[in-house]
Design brief:
Length: 310
Amino acid sequence: MRSVSNRTRIGLLAAFTAFSAVLSTGSAAAATELNGDWAPFDRCPVDAPAMLAADGVNTIATCIASSSVTGSITLGKSKVPTGNSDLQLGVIQRSDGTNSLVAPPEGALTADAAEVPGGLLGLMCPSAIPFVSAICRQLTDNNLNRITATIEPAGAPRDFSMVAAFSTGEPILTIPVRIHLRNPFLGDKCYIGTTADPVLLKPQNLNVPSLSLQRFAADGTRDDEGEMGRYTFAGADQGDATFAVPGASGCGAGLLDWAVNLKTGLPSAAGKNSVKLNDTSTYFGSPYDPAGLAPDEGKKLSEFWHSAVR
């Protein structure tokens, strides 16, 4: 196996910060299917100009991805499960130790909807308000009662901490999100949090993940002398109990915002909310020797990624 230069090791270490940041949610439908060890990076923005411009010495382009199948988020008095979601980003590491993130065209975070236990009955009923009580009386139909909640991005991830990526109890990054509630009475524009006033999650490792390294060929085939390297962090739960939650908006064209807020205890101050993501799997992938591909490391990363498309 070829030796790794100090410069390469420093690059890998810096990248860990970025990909550990991804430790927030799980897997959604993939836009592209990739071969072998490339598989977790199916939305990596390898063709973004900033990624293509990386030279492998002053700047290094990498792919990061993370997933967690199960989890929950408590907002005020309501606990909502998290559905399968997928957070993927490109990261540009600079020689001065700083990083910048590049989101895929569809956004860094995608997620499946999760059903809210109890539906609208649990969210708003019973109520002493006649208008809300009238709705509650109609909720004998499961389709009318059913509420789904989806965690959506509400801004770009930021605030990476390199030390936190390898430790426990320190925020790894800040992820702005909003919770999209869907129901026939609530409509399709009911949110907890907005892009202007998001829920700011700051996940941290609750336990130390296990670490393994995979070497693979440009097309994703496992190869101990391959051009690519993938670090896999597995088995870490992540959580945050420091974020505030704003009130609901757009529910029932705004007419039911107050009802949702009253029942769920929103807005809710920092320290009264929490998120827990179980058994996260996080991946970091980059050329094993970025400097060896200079000055075209970013272009080669894109070439390798496309060679792995099935």
